[in-house]
Amino acid sequence: MPNDLSQIRRAAFATSLRRCYLFSELPAQDLQCIASFVVQKRLVKGECLFREGAPFEGFYVVDEGAISVHRVNASGKMQVIHVFRAGESFAEAALAENTGYPADALALEQTSVLLVPKAQFLELLQKHSELALRMLGSMSRHLQALVGLIDDLTLKDVQTRFVCWLLKRCGKPLGDEAVVVELDRTKGVLAAEFGTTNETLSRTFAELRNLKLVVVRGRTITIPNPRNLEGFFRRKFGDI
Fold it and tell me: Which of 33, 73, 148, 201 lies at 20 to 30 Å from 23 by C-alpha?
């Protein structure tokens, strides 16, 4: 029975890893190998996975739930770098350093992650050059996300950042039919991602609602006409 349970767990871990870009095209044998040494960690909402500067154990793949990776400045203000959800990996860049984790990681809800230990994974990388290239691609995407975050925080106000965020969720091309966006995070987390406060974000919601550009009910945001929303802000701010 213990062996059966071990095989079931390994198969479940392999399925979870397969959802991640890094491992999506690996041969089943290699995936089973990684699944044999990953460590599952379960966290409750608000539980810390690691702190900035903590010794690096390995990188993570989100199995279910959500992890906020963020930094806190000297005044205690939190800036969310990214919210990682099922199938996404994070903290890979620290594989090449000995300085510890570069930020804090916190569970936003009940969450399960898979720790891919550093030593075993580096040994595997030496045998599989294509996996190393995929690692570089993943880290490049994380870097692009960081550059985009810096641009947003320095070049756009909160209202413009929020509209851009909404329009990205309307699909292309933008049409005249209503689009419903379900918030998969709290307004507090969303505000932190935009580098602002709950109060400022609430005012932004209210301004857009008063202009009849959005309808907000709980965690549901309806954009009655995405093309009108885009047109209004192009006239006000130019390209967004």
Answer: 148
Q: Which of 100, 134, 155 is the last residue of a domain?
A: 155
Q: What is the DSSP string of 39-68?
A: EEEEE-TT-EEE-TTPPP-EEEEEEESEEE
225 and 232 in contact (C-beta within 8 Å)?
no
Distances (CA, A) of 235 to 22, 119, 212, 231: 41, 54, 16, 6
133 and 38 together in one domain: yes
Provide the 10 A C-beta neighbour count for residue 51.
Answer: 13
Residue at which a domain ends, from 101, 124, 155? 155
Span 83-100, pLDDT tens digits: 888 988 888 877 777 788
Same domain for 138 and 42, yes or no, is yes
Largest CA distance in the chain: 67
- Asked if 79 contacts 195 with a C-beta cutoff of 8 angstroms, the reply is yes
Structure tokens that stand for 39 in this block: 């460590």
Token pair belonging to 66 = 């959500």
Q: Note down the domain range covering 162.
A: 158-237
The pTM score is 0.69
d(CA 129, CA 133): 6
CA distances for 70 relative to 48, 108, 118, 225, angstroms: 11, 12, 22, 33
Is the bond leading into 173 cis (omega within 30 degrees of zero)?
yes
Question: pLDDT, tens digit, for every residue of 141-192?
Answer: 655 655 555 455 444 567 777 888 888 888 778 888 888 888 877 777 777 6
